[in-house]
Design goal:
The chain has 3 domains: 3-275, no CATH class; 297-438, NADH Oxidase, CATH 3.40.109; 449-755, no CATH class. The chain contains 25 helices and 29 strands. By secondary structure, the protein is an alpha+beta fold. Helix 12 (356-362) packs across helix 13 and helix 15 (449-460) runs antiparallel to helix 19 (550-576). Strand 25 and strand 26 form a beta hairpin. The strands form 11 sheets. Strands 15-16-14-13-17 form a 5-stranded antiparallel sheet. Strands 1-2-8-3 form a 4-stranded antiparallel sheet, sandwiched between helices. A 4-stranded antiparallel sheet has the order 18-21-27-22.
C-alpha cells in the first residue's frame, strides 16, 4: 500500500472541493456484475477513489415544497455533477501522470438503459457511484437504495476513479445503523415506487456485511426522473419502458423530478423537525451561528476567493436593511435569510453593440462556448459559496426563485455596449454588510506579455501552449475556402423532445470558413492551448469484459469542457490587461462536432491546423495533430486577440507514420476519410499534405449516431444504418426517423479513427 500517494490523492481531492473522500480496494466489488465493476473496465485495477459533494441543505429542505416537478434551488444538482466531473477527470490525470493506468468515471454515467448482453440490469452505469460510496467506507445503503453518510445522510452526490495504484483502503463504515426504516421515502414517493411493483429485497454483500434495500421497479422510478412525465397524471399499476413511451407520446413531457427519496432521508441523529421552515422534510442538525453576531471578515474573504477562482467580475454583498428598503421579499424564499450575495460576470463581444446579435448568430459555436462557460463558472461559484457558508454555520440558498433584475439595478449592474451580463444570487442567514467588490480576479503581471500568458495558461491547466500570427491563420482560412468551396452540409435538428421519435428538420448550407479577423477585426495573434486526455480510456474502449464506451466519451467531453474554462481564463486575463480576446473550439470552421449524452463537443479535427501553425505538432491523415509528448491524444482551443505576440514558427509536416499506416482510413465506418481527396495546404510558408474529412459522412456516425460501429453498440443501441454513397436531406431524414427513441439523446461515440492511431507520444 502506498501511504504517501494515498494522502496526496485525498489532499488533492479535498483541494478540488470534495467533502468526503474514501478509497475502496477492488476486492470489495467482487459481488458486482462484471460489466458494472472496476475490474471489468480496468482488469488491472487495484483501487477506486470515491469522492462526494454534499448537497446544500437549504436547497434540499426548501425546494420541491410546492410540487416535486417545480425545481429551482434543487437544480444546483446539475452543477454538482459538473464539479464532480472536474474532480474525477483531474484526479484521473494526476494518477496517470504518475504512471498508474487510471479510468475516471463521469458523475452521471448511465449509458445502458436496457442492459447489455449478459447484463440484465436497466439504467446500468459503468460503475455504481452509490455502491462505490459504500465500498469506500463513506456510508451504508439505505432502504431507498441511496448511500447514506453519517455526516450528510443521503444529501450527497458521488464520483469514482478506477486506478491500478494500490492505495490504502478506507475502513468500511461500522458505526450506528444510519437507515432506521423510518418509512419517509416509502410514504412520500410521488410514484409509489416503494409500495407498488416492489419484488422483495436486494441483498448486497460487501466484506461479509449485508446491505438490504427495496428491489423496486426502476421503470416506475423513471416516470418523472428520466422520462420527465407529469407526476399529476394517473400512473398505471404496472410500468415498463413501453408504458412510459406511450405516455410520453400521448401527454408529452413536463420536467424532471425532485428526488423526494433524497429530500426526506436523514439518519436519526441528524433530524431536526422544523415545520415552520420546511414541511415535507426535516432539517439537518448542524453547527449554526446566531444572526445577531457580526460576520467575521474571513467570510467575506472566502466568498471573494471563490469568485476569483471562477474568474467572476464582481461580488455584491447586500444587507438585510437594504433588501427591506428595496421591498425585496427575501424571507419568502429563505425563512432565516438576512443577507444576499449577487455574483456577476460579463462577456465582452468583439464587436459593437448593434452588431452583437449578428455576431452571435454567425459565430454560434463560439458564442455558445463562451456563454456556457460563464454560466458554469457562476453556478460553481454559487455552489461552492453555499457549501462554505454552511460549513461556517449559516444557511445558504442557491438558484433561488427570486428574480435578479431588482438586485442588478440596485448594484448598478447593467449590460452596456458590447458586454452581456450574467448573474447568480445566493440568499443567506449571514447578516452581511453592504459591500461592492469589483475586479475580483487579479493576474500576475511579471515578465513580458508572451511569458505572462504562457505562465497563466499553464497555471490554468494547459499542457501545451503555442502562438500563431492572425495573418497565418487568415492565410489558412483563405486556402480552406478554396479547398472546401464545393462542400455543402446537410444539417438536421429534432423537433421532438427526448424520449420521442426523431422528427427531423433538414437544412442545407455551405460550410462557413472563418478568418481570425472575422472574429476580431484587429486581430494580431492566436494563442492555442492543448490539453492531453487520459490514455487508459482509449486503450480500454470496448474491451472485454465490461466492453465500456462511457469512460472514453467522458474523457473527450471533459477535455473540451476544461479547455473552454482554460480559454475563458486567458480571455479574461487578456481583457484585464487591456486587450480584446475571444475563444473558439473551431476557429476556422474546418472541424465538426461529436454527439454525447452531455451534448455536442468539438471533434478531433477542430483547431488542428491552428495548432500546427502555432508550432505545437505535425498534421496527421485523420486531421489530428501529433505532438512529441502525447501523440494525437490532445484537443485544442484557440484564443484570438489584438495583443501582438511573437509567433512560435516551426516547419510543419505531415507525420511520417501516416502515409504508411492509413489505419484511420480503413477503420472509418462511413468512409469519411478517402485518400483520393488528399490535397495540400500551406502553413507558415510550407506546403503539407491535407486530407479534408467528408463532414456529412463523418456526421452520419459521430454526430447523429446512426452507425453501431462508431461506439453505440457498446451502449446497447441497435440503430445501425449504413451510410449511403451520397447523403441527401431525404435519406438523412429517413435514417434519423429510425433512431432509438430513448437512446437518440444518449449517443456514445468511440471515434475509431483516433482509437486505432498508433501515434501515442512518448
Amino acid at each position: 500500500m502506498d501511504h504517501k500517494l494515498t494522502v496526496a490523492v485525498k489532499e488533492f481531492a479535498y483541494t478540488l472541493g470534495a467533502d468526503l473522500v474514501g478509497i475502496a480496494p477492488v476486492s470489495r466489488y467482487e459481488n458486482a456484475p462484471v460489466k458494472m465493476s472496476p475490474q471489468g473496465i480496468l482488469p488491472g485495477a487495484k483501487s477506486v477513489v470515491v469522492c462526494a459533494i454534499h448537497h446544500p441543505d437549504a436547497a434540499i429542505e426548501l425546494d420541491g415544497e410546492v410540487h416535486p416537478q417545480i425545481m429551482g434551488p434543487y437544480s444546483i444538482q446539475y452543477i454538482m455533477n459538473t464539479k464532480l466531473d472536474f474532480l474525477s477527470f483531474k484526479i484521473g490525470r494526476m494518477l496517470e501522470d504518475l504512471g498508474y493506468p487510471t479510468v475516471p468515471i463521469a458523475s452521471s454515467n448511465i449509458w445502458r438503459y436496457r442492459g447489455y448482453r449478459d447484463l440484465e440490469a436497466v439504467f446500468a452505469p459503468d460503475v455504481s457511484h452509490i455502491y462505490g460510496g459504500i465500498c469506500a467506507g463513506l456510508g451504508e445503503l439505505g432502504w431507498n437504495g441511496l448511500c447514506i453518510t453519517p455526516e450528510y445522510g443521503a444529501r450527497n452526490r458521488f464520483v469514482s476513479i478506477i486506478t491500478e495504484a494500490e492505495l490504502e483502503p478506507t475502513p468500511m463504515y461500522s458505526g450506528k445503523k444510519l437507515c432506521d426504516m423510518c418509512g419517509e421515502c416509502i410514504r412520500k414517493c410521488p410514484t409509489d415506487a416503494y409500495r407498488k411493483e416492489v419484488n422483495g429485497t436486494k441483498d448486497v454483500v460487501i466484506e461479509n456485511k449485508h446491505h438490504v434495500f427495496a428491489n423496486k421497479n426502476l421503470w416506475r422510478c423513471a416516470w418523472g426522473e428520466h422520462f420527465d412525465l407529469d407526476l399529476d397524471l394517473p400512473i398505471p399499476d404496472q410500468v415498463d419502458e413501453q408504458v412510459l413511451l406511450d405516455h410520453v407520446k400521448q401527454h408529452g413531457i413536463r420536467h424532471g423530478e425532485f428526488g423526494v427519496c433524497l429530500k426526506v432521508c436523514l439518519p436519526k441523529h441528524l433530524r431536526q423537525p422544523d415545520p415552520d421552515y420546511c414541511k415535507i422534510s426535516v432539517r439537518r442538525k448542524r453547527h449554526t451561528i446566531p444572526s445577531d453576531l457580526p460576520v467575521h471578515s474571513a467570510v467575506y474573504d472566502t466568498v471573494l476567493s471563490i469568485a476569483g477562482k471562477n474568474t467572476l467580475d464582481h461580488v455584491h454583498f447586500i444587507s438585510q436593511k437594504t433588501l427591506e428598503e428595496q421591498g425585496i421579499p427575501m424571507k419568502e424564499h429563505l425563512p432565516d435569510g438576512v443577507g444576499a450575495i449577487l455574483l456577476t460576470d460579463h462577456i465582452k463581444l468583439p464587436c459593437q453593440a448593434d452588431e452583437a446579435k449578428a455576431f452571435r448568430e454567425t459565430h454560434i459555436m463560439e458564442w455558445n462556448t463562451m456563454s456556457r462557460t460563464v454560466r458554469v463558472n457562476l453556478t460553481i461559484a454559487e455552489l461552492d459559496i453555499c457549501r462554505e457558508l454552511e460549513k461556517i454555520g449559516y444557511s445558504a440558498l442557491p438558484k433561488t426563485y427570486l428574480k435578479h433584475d431588482a438586485l442588478q439595478k440596485l448594484c448598478h449592474e447593467t449590460t452596456e455596449n458590447n458586454a452581456i451580463l450574467y448573474s447568480a444570487l445566493i440568499l443567506t442567514s449571514a447578516p452581511l454588510e453592504d459591500r461592492h467588490v469589483l475586479d475580483v480576479s487579479h493576474s500576475d503581471a511579471r515578465g513580458n506579455l508572451k511569458e505572462r500568458l504562457t505562465r497563466a495558461a499553464k497555471e490554468a491547466g494547459a499542457d501545451l501552449v503555442g502562438f500563431a500570427s492572425a495573418f497565418a491563420i487568415d492565410e489558412i482560412a483563405e486556402q480552406l475556402r478554396e479547398i472546401r468551396k464545393e462542400e455543402t452540409i446537410v444539417f438536421a435538428t429534432d423537433k421532438n423532445p427526448r424520449m420521442m421519435a426523431f422528427d427531423p428538420v433538414i437544412s442545407m448550407r455551405k460550410r462557413n470558413i472563418f478568418k481570425a479577423t472575422d472574429i476580431l477585426p484587429d486581430a494580431k495573434s492566436v494563442l492555442v492551448l492543448g490539453l492531453h486526455y487520459p490514455e487508459t480510456p482509449i486503450k480500454r474502449l470496448g474491451k472485454p469484459p465490461a466492453e465500456a464506451v462511457g469512460p472514453y466519451v467522458f474523457s473527450q467531453y471533459e477535455t473540451n469542457m476544461l479547455l473552454s474554462h482554460m480559454g475563458y481564463d486567458i480571455c479574461k486575463t487578456l481583457q484585464s490587461w487591456g486587450y480584446d480576446a475571444f475563444l473558439s473550439h473551431n476557429l476556422t470552421g474546418a472541424g465538426s462536432v461529436v454527439g454525447s449524452p452531455r451534448g455536442y463537443f468539438a471533434d478531433g479535427s477542430c483547431n488542428t491546423l491552428e495548432a500546427v501553425a502555432a508550432g505545437l505538432g505535425t498534421l496527421t491523415l485523420n486531421g489530428s495533430v501529433s505532438t512529441e509528448k502525447y501523440g494525437i491524444h490532445q484537443r485544442f482551443i484557440a484564443i484570438v486577440t489584438n495583443a501582438e505576440l511573437e509567433p512560435d514558427i516551426s516547419t510543419p509536416v505531415l507525420n511520417s507514420v501516416c502515409m504508411d499506416c492509413k489505419q484511420c482510413l480503413s477503420i472509418c465506418p462511413t468512409r469519411a476519410l478517402q485518400k483520393n481527396n488528399l490535397t495540400t495546404i500551406q502553413i507558415n510558408g510550407t506546403s503539407i499534405p491535407y486530407l479534408p474529412v467528408d463532414i456529412n459522412r463523418c456526421d452520419w456516425a459521430s454526430k447523429y449516431a446512426l452507425v453501431r460501429d462508431e461506439g453505440n453498440k457498446f451502449g446497447g443501441n441497435d440503430t445501425d444504418i449504413p451510410c449511403p454513397d451520397v447523403i441527401t436531406p431525404e435519406n438523412l431524414a429517413e435514417a434519423l426517423k429510425q433512431q432509438d427513441h430513448v437512446l437518440k439523446f444518449r449517443p456514445v461515440i468511440g471515434e475509431p479513427c483516433i482509437v486505432v492511431c498508433p501515434l501515442n507520444g512518448t
